[in-house]
Amino acid sequence: MADIFREIEEEVRRDKAAELWKKYGWVITGLAVLAVLAVAGWQFWLHRENQASQAVGARLEAALKSSRDGDATQAETILKELSTTAPAGYRLIARFRLAAETAKRDPAAGAAAFDALAGDASLDQTYRDLAKLRAGILRVDLAPYPEIKAALEPLASAQGVWRHTAREFLGIAALKANLFEDAGRWFDAAITDPQAPRGLRQRVELYLALVRGGPVTVKN
């Protein structure tokens, strides 16, 4: 008797399933087709994005090659294009490279270009600080020490991502201004930082030798 009831129950379930399929089967089929199309569309989009990324990467490499070859005009032309049309990551690289190219022919204009990057609120603070650093470095040969100090000192704090380079160039700026005490203080801060890169330590040792030598007196 129990077997009969089970068979009847199974038959009822089959009938209900057939009825549901007849009523809603087109919906299930449609959803399956949409799922397949969605996967295919996603794969196609990834393919196109990869192609576009490769094309932009090739253009950026062409700009860098032009720069290495001394063709600044061509390099700047490509970088200007990429700085407005490339995807976000490449666009940021292009803007930094364009500012650097500009600085090669006109340091003041290059510093202004980095100022524009530093003032762009849409950028991550790390990149804005990097732009401030680059602008400050360019002005070491253009501006008095107080101006360099005002620009770079905030980047030289103990937690600053760019503190090592900021301290180095603060020391250089002070040394150029014959402010040996300030120079020594910045170089000491750079060299005593346990996380200072080895190359920077070697350079700072040379700077400190100049600081210890003091001003050079020229006899007439």
Automatic annotation (TrEMBL):
The name this protein goes by in its record: Ancillary SecYEG translocon subunit/Cell division coordinator CpoB TPR domain-containing protein
Lineage summary: Bacteria, Pseudomonadati, Pseudomonadota, Alphaproteobacteria, Hyphomicrobiales
Transmembrane segments: 24-45
Ranges for domain Ancillary SecYEG translocon subunit/Cell division coordinator CpoB TPR: 20-198
Alphabetical UniProt keywords: Membrane, Transmembrane, Transmembrane helix
Pfam families according to UniProt: TPR_21
InterPro entries: SecYEG/CpoB_TPR
